[in-house]
Amino acid sequence: MRTISFELNEEDERLIRAYAKSKNLSLSTLVRDTVFERIENELDSKFYNEAMRRHKERPETVSFEDMMKDLN
What we know:
Layout: H1 10-22, H2 27-57, H3 64-71
């Protein structure tokens, strides 16, 4: 397992430690989960924007019934 370190001022450290404690999480878990959530949100946004761009270029609609037929 690898270690990443970063600097915080005392106020930020207290806030992060208190938050982790209130959620019954270790600092490592809190930071790791928060970073991964941010990455996931950015990727979701990127994929959404790309899908919307493609849809605007070539709009296509499918009825719910047709979608269900295709899925079955």
